[in-house]
Specification:
It contains 12 helices and 19 strands. By secondary structure, the protein is α/β, with parallel strands linked by helices.
Length: 480
């Protein structure tokens, strides 16, 4: 069978789609290669949420097309969100692309990778797609951690967002399906599960479940062997008392809330079709902190939204100072042609939007530096992820307060004479801190139960996994 290499761009939700495609290909007998020059077939799973993501996707497609021009690759497949928005343009303007498939066509990946297939896209209509527990997946996240997509699509009408156009209406996975997949992942070696979806806090509403996310967390928290259960992407007006309660009461649920607020000035939020105000958000944050001492709060913000005045930005800056977020990402407004906000007047010049972003990041850097400095000397559990390629230190890992890919790292410079394995939980003492990362010394004592004998299948064959989200420096792509 032909060798396949895959490049996955964008958010963790897109990464799960890549893992599903790889799972289907492996089941069909394809070999996965990590070397693009050795791949017979290259798949690029794209992101197109905002301008920089679109450009990265296009650049990556052209980069992979070079392998086809040199004759090493025989087929180039483009998948994902970029196809949903620009299917015809991709086919017309990039002749090296042999096949395109959108977000609802993952099950056609085998057809897309047939070398004898002369078609450049399927002629069959596609229905809204969402994988289930029996769907094969190749887990590509670091050992010890795995994502679970619990829902797809979005029903919110935020004026800046094009996700509903690419992903469709909101739809939840069946409760039992998620529970079974979670149990299987833990049995295969995952000690941390990260629940993702466009709006996790709406989980179960379409199934008739009240407080569906809270109920799901309570059920998953009972899985033996699970140490951390994390959920991302909370819509602010959907954070219920039941959700706060389950995070406060369940030892395995990470004391962590990711609530993208986007702004704090009421006029801007109204124009974004988000509503509310910074004052209301501060009450929500205080409610969470009162119920869960030591909770980690993360948000993402937009600068330069059409009509954002200097007064609006001052309100946002004052809000960040008062809110004292543990983690914060900022991105400049991207004027997407199919978004409702594209028609709004009073565009903010890019230079001003960039300056405002830098001011927020400078403020958050000071806040983060102070908060991380307070951790020095504390003894905390750490998930060891593997070698620290970014530095000369031995290993890197994460604290409970650090979600994968977006929140910085624990850099380990002393293993106390031991040889910890990736995916292992250990106690560690924090010895130093910087703006967004900490340094730690591992203790001999393990945290949690020993790792089970795992049948874990990893995607070491990925050409490249390049998440859009980065450290708390603010370069992370937004999420709802």
């Amino acid at each position: 069978m032909p060798k396949v290499g895959l490049v996955s761009l964008g958010c963790p939700k897109n990464l799960v789609d890549s893992e599903v495609m790889l799972g289907a290909l492996v089941r069909q007998g394809h070999e996965i290669t990590a070397d693009a020059s050795q791949a017979d077939i290259i798949i690029v799973n794209t992101c197109s949420f905002i301008g920089p993501a679109k450009q990265e996707s296009i650049d990556t497609i052209l980069e992979m097309a070079e392998h086809k021009r040199r004759g090493t690759a025989k087929r180039l497949v483009v998948a994902g969100c970029l196809v949903e928005r620009y299917r015809s343009q991709i086919l017309e303007e990039i002749p090296e692309v042999d096949y395109v498939m959108g977000t609802n066509e993952l099950e056609r990946v085998g057809e897309a990778c047939q070398l004898s297939n002369g078609a450049r896209q399927s002629v069959l209509p596609s229905s809204p797609y969402l994988y289930q527990e029996f769907t094969p997946r190749i887990i590509s996240s670091p050992p010890g951690s795995a994502y679970i997509k619990i829902a797809e699509g979005c029903d919110h009408t935020c004026s800046f967002c094009v996700i509903p156009q690419m992903r469709g209406r909101f739809r939840s996975r069946r409760f039992a399906s998620v529970v079974r997949e979670a149990g299987d992942l833990v049995a295969r070696g995952a000690r941390e599960l990260v629940l993702v979806g466009q709006d996790n806090t709406s989980y179960g509403e379409d199934l008739g479940l009240r407080d569906g996310l809270a109920r799901l967390l309570r059920e998953l928290a009972q899985i033996p062997g699970l140490i951390w259960l994390r959920f991302l992407y909370c819509y602010p007006n959907r954070v219920t008392d039941a959700l706060i309660e389950v995070v406060a009461e369940s030892p395995r649920v990470a004391k962590y809330f990711d609530i993208p607020l986007q702004h704090a000035a009421a006029p801007v939020l109204k124009s974004m079709r988000r509503g509310s105000s910074g004052k209301h958000f501060l009450k929500l944050l205080e409610k969470i902190r009162s119920a869960i001492p030591g909770v980690t709060l993360r948000t993402s913000l937009i600068t330069g939204f059409p009509g954002e005045t200097e007064e609006d930005f001052r309100v946002l800056l004052d809000f960040v100072e008062e809110a004292q977020f543990d983690r914060l990402g900022v991105f400049r407004y991207s004027n997407e042609e199919t978004a409702a906000s594209f028609r709004l007047p009073n565009l903010v010049p890019a230079r001003i939007s960039h300056q405002r972003r830098r001011k927020i990041l400078a403020l958050q850097r000071r806040i983060s530096r102070r908060k991380l400095k307070a951790l020095v000397g504390k003894r905390l559990p750490v998930l060891v992820e593997g070698p620290a390629a970014e530095t000369d230190l031995v290993l890197k890992g994460r604290l409970e307060s650090q979600a994968p890919e977006v929140d910085g790292n624990v850099f380990i410079n002393d293993c106390n004479g031991s040889s910890p394995q990736p995916g292992e939980f250990r106690w560690a003492t924090i010895t130093a801190s910087s703006d967004f990362d900490v340094v730690a010394r591992l203790e001999v004592e393990r945290f949690g139960d020993p790792l089970p004998e795992a049948r874990r299948i990893t995607a070491s064959g990925l050409v490249r996994i390049q998440p859009a989200a980065v450290l708390s420096s603010g370069d992370a792509l937004p999420h709802l």
